[in-house]
Structures are given as structure tokens and as C-alpha cells.
Amino acid sequence: MAIVRMTAPLLIAAMGSLLAERAGVVTFSMESMMLVGTLGGIIGSGLTNNVWVGLLLAIIFGALIGLMYAVWAVTIGAHQIVTSTALNLGALGLTSILYALVFTRGAEVIENVITVPKLAAWKVPLLGDIPFIGQVFFNQLPLVYLGYLLIPLIWYILYRTTWGLKIRAVGEHPHAAETVGISVAKVRYLTIIFSGMMSGLAGAFLSIGLLGSFQENMTAGRGFIAYTAIVFGKWQPIGVALGTLLFGAADALQLRIQAIDPRIPYQALIAFPYIVTLIALMAVVGRASWPASSGTPYKREEV
Asked: H/E element holding 140?
């Protein structure tokens, strides 16, 4: 069960960002979108005692960061990695400051841990009664089921819809796409905002799904790991899902080992998922087939 729950936020963020990646946008800013999602979940759930308001606010916060990124990356044509890094660093400080202002009235951040209502597990009728499988896969938080649904949904959108064809065309040949009437800016804006929405939900999974509280730097690099899963999966929905499963399993394993043998330095165990991520990235990066226009700003006047 721990593997499923550790995989879920990575899966939601990576699948949500895959469309933008296929449209030629580098979604290295997922970390910032997840960070604001953790805060949105806490604020919404804490102030209203309603987890669904928390999820809605997480979506809105993530979408706003996505919109901000789209303005810089698409309209202004700024360097996408540099812009993403700025957003990631900015979100790290902003979330801590806003948390303090909302819940502690300006007191030192994280001194007082605020607990809020958490998401409850949903048991799927019939499937949840299957021995072992039912308990592991079908007695989970609702966002876990969203992760399940995103795999076939994103695959269908990419390969069975006109919208998916436009996304892939923009990612591979934006100039050609524009000549046949496809708005490159519109496609990229919408996919980036969708990336923000899903990444925001992934962040809320951590704050009001797993813990019911907020911590500084709560995502702890999971946005970067989700991005690595996209590269590891070679921008294919099934491959990306398998990548998130690998990294989620590594995260769950280090937690399990900490519980079994506390003599092992916890610092080494905390680093384990990131080491696995680096090894996986080294194994595939040379053979990865990036979308042809990935990271390249599109300027219409060049057509």
C-alpha cells in the first residue's frame, strides 16, 4: 500500500505534465506547482474544514503558477529551465511565508504545526473485497484513483483525439502546425495550465492526503522526480507510469527500511530515492527521444 501512495503524487504530476511536454514545453517547474498545491490544500481544508475546498484551492494555485509560467515561456519566450528554476525557488519561500501569515499570523514558520482535515480512503465496491489486491489498490485515497484514470485518459487524448494530434504536431513541428491553422500559443498555454492543475493536486495529496499538515519544502524534490519519470518513460504514457512506479517504490522502500532497522543512518535512506532517480536518468538520457521543439520558444513571425 505504501508503494501505491508514494507513487500517486508522482503519477498525477507526471501524467498531467506529459501533455505540455509533448507540446514542446519543458515542465521543470512542476516542483513549484506541487509546492503551491500543498499550501492550497492546507489553506482550503484548514479554513473551511472541507478537504474538497482544499483540493479546489490546490488546483487553482497550481493553475496560477502554470499560467505564470506560460506567460514567461510562451508569450515572452524566456528560457524555460531558467524560468522554471526561478519559480521553484520562489515557491519554496512563498509557501512558507503564506503559511505563516494565514495560520500563525506572522509567527515563525513551522514552529506550530497546524493539523487540518485529511482525505479519507474510498473502498471500491466489489473490487475492494478482493484479497490483498483489493486492500492495496482499491481501498485508497480518491486521488490515487485519479492517478489510475490519468494513464488511459492521457494515452487516449494523445493518440485518439484531434486535440492530441495538435499537441504532438506543436511539439514536433510548430511552424508546420501554425501553417495549417493550429494555434501554437493556445495549445501550449492550455497544456501548461493543465500541468499546473494536476501538479497542484499532486501537492495536495502530500498535505491533506498523507499528513493533514504542512511542512516547509514539503514536496522535497518530488516535482523533479516526476519530471525525471517523463524522461525515463520517453514521453509515452505507459513508460511514464512505470517510471513513477519505480521511483515511488524506491521512496516507499526507504521508509520501510527506516522502520525495520533504525540503526541505518536516516540521511542515507532519505537520499535513496534520489540516487535511484539519478541512476535511471543516466541509463536512458542518451537514448531519450525528446520532442523536436522541446524547450524552444516559438515566434510566429519566423514562419
From this structure: strand 139-140
The confidence band for 298, taking pLDDT boundaries of 50, 70 and 90, is confident
For 205, the grid coordinates are: 495529496
Residue whose C-alpha is closest to residue 86's, from 98, 70, 69? 69
Do the domain assignments include residue 47? yes
pLDDT of residue 108: 43
Q: Domain of 268?
A: 2-118+134-302
For residue range 11-50, what is the model confidence (pLDDT) as tens digits? 999 999 999 999 999 999 999 999 999 999 999 999 999 9
Give the bridge partners for 122, in sequence order: 140
Q: What is the widest separation between alpha-carbon atoms in the chain?
A: 63
Record the cell numbers describing residue 237, joined without a space: 504514457
Long-range CB contacts for residues 89-96, cutoff 8 Å, separation at least 24: 90/32, 91/31, 91/32, 91/33, 91/35, 91/36, 91/65, 92/32, 92/35, 92/216, 92/217, 94/36, 95/35, 95/36, 95/38, 95/39, 95/214, 95/216, 95/218, 96/216
Number of compact structural domains in the chain: 1
125, part of any domain: no
Q: In angstroms, rounded to a whole number, what is the distance separating the alpha carbons of residues 97 and 99?
A: 5
Predicted structure pTM score? 0.92
For residue range 227-272, what is the model confidence (pLDDT) as tens digits? 999 999 999 999 999 999 999 999 888 888 877 877 777 777 888 8
CATH of the domain at 158: 1.10.3470
The whole-angstrom separation of Cα 223 and Cα 112 is 26
Helices 184-204 and 162-172, packing angle to 10 deg: 100
Eight-class DSSP state of 104: S
The answer to whether residue 123 is domain-embedded is no
Integer Cα distance of 240 and 3 in angstroms: 16
Position 129 in a domain: no
